[in-house]
Amino acid sequence: MSDTHAHSASYVRDKMLPEQAPPVTQVGAIKWLRENLFAGPLNSILTLISIYIVYWVVIHIGPWIMNGIWEADNLNGCRAIRNEIYGEGVPAACFAVLTDRWHQLVFGYYPSALYWRPILALLLFGGGLAPILFPNLPRRLYILSASAPLLCIWLLWGGSIWMPISVAVGFFVGYAAFKYLTPVVGSLGGTIAAVLLPILYWLLLAGPLAGGLQDVLPLGIQAVQSRAFGGFLLALVIGLAAIVLSLPLGILLALGRQSDLFIIKTSCVIFIEVIRGVPLIVWLLTAQTLLNYFLPPGTNFDLMLRVIIMVTLFASAYIAEVIRGGLAALPKGQYEAADALGLDYWKAMQLIILPQALKISIPGIVNTFIGLFKDTTLVLFIGLLDSLGVANAIRSTTDWNGIYWELFLFIGVMFFISCFSMGRYSLYLEKKLQREHR
Amino acid sequence: MSTLTDPPKPAFRLSQLIYDTRYRSITIQVVALILILAALYWLVNNTLDNLARLGKDFNYGFLSNPAGYDINQRLIEYNNQMSHGRAALVGILNTLLVAFLGCVTATVLGVIAGVLRLSKNWVVNKLMAVYVEGFRNVPLLLWIILIFAIMTESMPQPREFRGEEATQSMLLGDNVAITNRGIWIPRLAFTNSISGNEAVAPVEDAVPVASGAADWLLILGVLAASLIAIRFVRRRADRIQEATGDRPKTWYIQLGLLIVPVGIVFVILGLTIVSPYLRGFNFAEGIHLRNSLIALWIALSLYTGAFIAEIVRAGILAVSKGQTEAAFALGLQPARTMNLVVLPQAMRVIIPPLISQFLNLTKNSSLAIAVGYMDVRATLGGITINQTGRELEGMLLLGAFYLTLSLIISGAMNFYNTRTQLKER
Amino acid sequence: MKRTVLFGALTIAGLAASAASAATLDDVKARGTLNCGVTTGLVGFAAPDANGVWTGFDVGVCRAVAAAIFGDPTAVEFVPTTGQTRFTALASGEIDLLARNTTWTFSRDTDLKFEFVGVNYYDGQGFMVPKALGVSSAKDLDGATVCIQTGTTTELNLADFFRTNNISYEPVPIETNAEAQQQYLAGACDVYTTDASGLASTRATFEAPDEHVLLPEIISKEPLGPLVRHGDSDWGDIARWTLNALISAEELGVTSANVEELSAAATDNPEVNRLLGTEGELGAMIGLEADWAKNAIMAGGNYGELFEKNIGENTPIGLARGLNAMWTEGGLIYSPPFR
Ligand SMILES: N[C@@H](CCC(=O)N[C@@H](CS)C(=O)NCC(=O)O)C(=O)O
User: Fold this and answer.
1) Can you list the alpha helix ranges (DSSP code H) found in B59-186?
2) Which domains are assigned to chain C?
């Protein structure tokens, strides 16, 4: 067959030519560079400026970090080592301060033999969160979620095991009251009893009960004072406690703000706006100086607890707004469907509205938590030792007097890693929810 | 002869208060009101008890007592013989100053970074991403302290500018001095100030010139008059355009109206630029931007700017692609597409969260506490409370100030929201 | 009991107020530790050492009070306070006793509602400048930038001093001594002013103390002493008489070395006997054990010993007794009699 062609045309290529490389300006790095970095004069200028900025930063900070000294007893030791290796005046970070003190920046003055306790508490907390975040896990795991908070508190502060147990009993008292009294006195009476009885129990019985049990069978772990908490541990404890405690409050506030009942709505709006209108630092100062005025004379509890209470109130206003957004984002049909089913308000909320609204609010809640976590650094100003406070304390010892940037770098990086990853997670959730909704 | 009897009117039973939806809402509200009032009563009662126990009273008289302390940065006349109230006012103005400056620069930074983050330019894009993520994910307090430390630790002392073998020199033709006590920049002053030259700095000054508030008021007045005149010119142009279809060229009249009168006033008053110079321990004259102000200002701007960048980016992305494509199809250049098509639409998405960022920035300015910037927290909420022991009164006042400020700002936001909503379809 | 408060309050925020008794002594005893407010770190007066153990002259007062109550000088929780936070910490009950270089003034005593229980250091406000500045008098400081701790009397004195001398200055308000030291050394201020004792202690921690001088002017009276809240005089008595016990001990020659021996049996000196509880019932009168003063003295020694050990001439801080010598030696330190 091949020779038929030979007669009809003078030349026919019968073999494919090997592919030619495209012109240099259209391929690989150069094309990419042209399209991405030097498309047009403005773009080129921007690129050059950016490259210069990066260059400047690298030149100024790079050697300092690369020359970092990780082993030394104090700042002078660091300087001596630097002078020996690189010569005087060469920039070299003294990361030895981190080697020496990182545990204080992370745990504060928590006894070092007990570091496993906060770590375990955190893991436990994560475990408790899992069934809520991943709905396809077995429902039985909710027990973990329910018991995690009390266990965490016990692990963190230590003391007798009977205390968390006797507090937990309070919840059962409430549950039992609801279950067995409702048939007798009606649902309203049941609810009231379910709220009042545990409170009475906690106020009057829980303490003596735990004390008694402790006398009979002393079981417990070493107690740790609130003052020992510090560094990132403090930020985490305050942040997590506040978020967890503020959720129920935030939900109620959000519902209240949506409600048709004038008085309830107004009071919720006032509460939310007042909290959000005033900076956290002012609230913290209030917790420190004024809480004592507002409580009965002679009441006194430790500063950390006061801060947790204040931050909880603070967070609840923000959470309420997040949840309000979630409620508003639900299609109206959901509310109507609930009404059509003849559900009353609380049933509708509990079974239909809130589960969905809360689900869409999770990213917002995570973002609120990130904000709160960063804001906990403010407790520095009322005398709690968060990581910046610990850094100050480290700096005021003779060993590390005069060290700055290394500590800032460490704290910044720690915050960046935790906030950035949480932020990504919330973004991922948001995307996932969007996909599910379509 | 009606066979229909009225349904028996049931007597009102107490249980209706709970089970009848008509009454239930009232019951709930009454109960809520009682609970709230009881809680308030409890709080107030406790407070009164505690005050009595401490032997204190509740009264704002301390505000008119002499403060006794000095404030370094004051926008209005103040000395330590003036009252605590005056000191609080100085602090309030300082708060407003840094909040205002911060909002302006944060917006500029945020818009630039937000737009650049959408750039196809890889390097620019990534650099902006690093900026935005870096600042958003690290506490503001850390940035404030860091910038303050850089200012105090790495900048030269005023001393180093002195003498023959000075190791440092001023910038921009001896007009700006960057030191570890802050930055000195030139100020504007008038040789023929209408407020007279009595407010002049000490005698050994080379240029005894003052700038009184009266001068600036005069200039503002002239400027306002110019603007009104410009409006007239524009209106006239509109009328002519409507009548004849031709719009007279007015831009040079407008420009002239804007510049000439103010320029004349400047000449009459004898405008001079007063540069800072080294005298004694410090630089004298010029405007002193203290480290505390600079650290707070820069950190607030960079931090909030990062959030604003995200808002701007989201706003621009929210404008559907079809709009851009349509604009391109009409032959608009990218820059004009941005200005005429995308930004106006994006604005509606951007403004509400932008204003809440302004709100955050204003509240965050209370972090002044970290660097000793004398804002209202530091004067009223700090030294005054500490010297007088009036923490209840002081904190209430402080909270009320911030609350009012927040309400004003969110009021502005709501106003804007309703206005833009009306325009929709 | 503490845990109850914690959990109770966590569950029903605030309602679970343990109705603590108004008596501070009972609270302290129930808690098992004394909460004592001190500085954030001023070497010689109150600062944690390398192991985190607080030492210093003011710390000594806290330890003596704890020892008087519990017989254990370590039963103290030290709460660092700044010039700004110290009074709110005391007023809000976060601390039971404040021993933080605090000046006894009229308004603090009356208007702020505190009770000063005595003076443990007679001081005055001074100025420190780098030698290189060539300043020899505070009057030469026109236009200088001055580092000053906010919330202190020194802030007010400074304002008065410059106003009366008709010279100007630029105040740089600072929260803690550590920050002030850093700003001063970085040259962000020309002068650091605070209590002269504080200046001496700060200078002692410098790398080159010789390059800094204290100016001759002392511009104020700063009687520094421990204080408690108004309204609980019994508690005030305990703090007051513990301090007086330390002072009397020095006057009577009771030291940490011989107190054991002197308190073993009644001595010839009735005042020593009353002080150490071998005669009379002084301890019971303030609600403490009979050997309260003995324990207080054993904690860190008598007044003179505390002084010499922490801030005296043989320490880096090197303060002379001066005004703070015993009244018998021409100073102002004087205790009412134990009887
Ligand atoms: N005596 C003055 C000043 C007390 C004061 O603040 N002194 C400084 C230096 S002597 C101090 O103790 N600083 C320790 C700290 O910053 O925590 C007062 O009571 O107001």
Assistant:
1) 84-117, 122-136, 140-154
2) 1-30 (no CATH), 32-122+224-329 (3.40.190.10), 125-220 (3.40.190.10)
CB contact under 8 A, A206 and C9: no
Same domain flag for A342 and A305: yes
Residue A184 covered by a domain: yes
CA distance linking residue B362 with residue B102, whole number of Å: 8
Residue B386 CB-density burial (10 A; 0-12 exposed, 13-18 middle, 19+ buried): buried
Q: Distance, CA B387 to ligand 1 centroid (Å)?
A: 14
Residue A395 host element (H or E): helix A387-395
Single pTM value for the model: 0.86
A318 touches chain C (CB under 8 A): no
- Per the structure, the complete domain to which residue A202 belongs is given by 160-221
Calpha distance B246→A102 (Å, rounded):
76
**A308 and A381 together in one domain:** yes
The reply to whether A374 and A422 lie within a common domain is: yes
> What number does the ligand 1 atom closest to the CA of C195 have?
10
Token reading at A430: 């948001």
d(CA B373, CA B230): 41
| Claim to verify: residue A235 and residue A217 sit in the same structural domain | no
Q: Are A251 and A354 in contact (CB under 8 A)?
A: yes
- A327: in domain: yes
- Does residue A51 fall inside a structural domain? yes
Q: Which of A79, A99, A119 marks a domain boundary?
A: A99
pLDDT, residue A437, reads: 60
Distance between CA atoms of residues B56 and B48, nearest Å: 9
Same domain, A236 and A375: yes
- Which positions 90-109 of C are in contact with A (Cβ < 8 Å)? 91-94
Best mutation target, B283, B387, B393, to test chain C (most C CBs within 10 A) = B387
Cβ atoms of C197 and C123 closer than 8 Å:
yes
CB pairs under 8 A between A and C: 109
The per-residue pLDDT for C303 is 95
Per-residue pLDDT at A161 exceeds 70: yes
Comparing C-alpha atoms, which of A255, A385, A229 is closest to residue A316? Answer: A255
Q: At C325, is the pLDDT very low, low, confident or very high (cuts 50, 70, 90)?
A: very high
Distance A411 CA to ligand 1 centre (A): 29
Position A93 in a domain: yes
Alpha helices for B170-270 (secondary structure H): 213-244, 251-269
Does ligand 1 come within 6 angstroms of the Cβ of C120?
A: no
User: Does residue A47 sit in the same domain as residue A91?
Assistant: yes
Question: Whose CA is closest to atom 9 on ligand 1?
Answer: C198
Q: How many domains does chain A have?
A: 3
Three-state SS for A300? Answer: coil
Q: Of A88-92, B101-105, C110-114, C160-164, where does mean pLDDT reach its minimum?
A: A88-92
pLDDT tens column, B353-374: 888 899 999 999 999 988 989 9
Query: Is the CB of C220 inside a 6 Å radius of any atom of ligand 1?
Result: no
Element (H or E) spanning A326, and its range? helix A303-329
Residues A420 and A407 in one domain: yes
Which residue of A173, A237, A282, A300 is the best one to mutate when testing the C interface, meaning the one whose CB has the most C CBs within 10 A?
A: A300
* Sign of the C-alpha dihedral computed for residues A173, A179, A182 and A185 taken in this order: negative
Please provide the DSSP assignment of B327-374 as one string.
HHHTT--HHHIIIIIIHHHHHHHHHHHHHHHHHHHHHHGGGGGGTT--
Beta strands in C134-289 (DSSP E): 144-149, 169-174, 191-195, 212-214, 222-224, 227-229
Say whether both A314 and A335 belong to one domain: yes
Exposure letters A126-140 (e unless 16+ CB within 10 A, then b): eebeebeeeeeeeee
Instruction: Give this complex's ipTM.
Output: 0.85
